[in-house]
Write the structure tokens for this entry.
Amino acid sequence: MSGVTVPTPSRIAPGAASLFDEVVGQPEAVAVLRRAAGSPVHAYLFVGHRSATGPAARGFAAALLCPRGGCGTCRSCRRALAGTHPDLVVMARTGAALGVDEARRLVSLAQRRPLEAARQVLVVEDVHLAQRAAPALLKTIEEPPGPTVFVLLAEEIPPELGTVASRCAVVRFPPVPRGVMVEWLVASGVDPDLAAAVAEGSGGDVDRARLLVDDTGYAARLELWRSLPARITGSGSVVAELADAVLAAAESALEPLRSRHAEQLAALQAEAESLGERAVPGRKEVVDRQHREERRWRTHELRVGLGVLARAYRDRMAAAVAGDHPAAVPGYQRAIELIGDATASLEHNPNETLLLQALLVRLGSIGD
């Protein structure tokens, strides 16, 4: 948390051009896209963290729109990478999910002829949240209207989108391995010990790693979770206090992300004012999208904390085995199972306070 600003150096395979410099630790996916750019099919589905699929989509679009196949230096490439090429359209949802009206707009855009390049590229974000719009998407992807290439971005492939996925060339962007993340952070100037801690909490997400580097409270939050086994008692007041502490820590973890969001809104406001607009067009949609991102961030923070807590119990179990105290092992195993159940429950947006209090009460009943 030393104030280091992590740049985005190229961590791709040797010889890679600048189109994919922002794609960290995904050499296999980048190699697939480089091969595909020469003879693309009509639709691709990129699956993984947005920090990987977003930059990959821009780089791939640049390769597809470049008259030289993706030189990385011409005006076409530069505009595609900046998101300003007239034949590159990026569609982001305005609500909680990509809606039917947005899918219909996508159908209409797909009919458009390219303005400059030999083809146009339509990038659709958050397709994993497009269950209602899936039929309209499927029809358009099954019957591609001429020189249009679809690039769909999704964090996962839910069952409802299985048919859509089957009509696309799927390119997966797995979480960046911990060792690769540490190497990239250290190469970017981050202290090795901090890099190891950040890699642990990043979940393989580069965007999260960048923010955690400058998060001064990150180490303290990890230590709070590690300390819980020694602090949990049968007292209800202690349980409530500890639950409040970890929830407050999770809330504080949002500060770097909220600062980034404030900067984004300020930049949009400045742009609107330069164009003579009194307000930011679509401000509500931007704010709603930021709130959803903050909610996901908070949930991930709790998931990381629970993972640290589970490791603390695993360490105790290993110490019990090494110290020839087998009677303690079943209790630690049960604690790890309870933590796993609580982690899974986060997927269903539970009342976090009740979830954590119930977990801590059960952990306290296990004893040491």
The first strand starts at residue 43 and ends at 48. Residues 268 and 335 are 48 Å apart (CA to CA). The first helix runs from residue 27 to 38. Residues 1-17 have pLDDT under 50 and may be disordered.
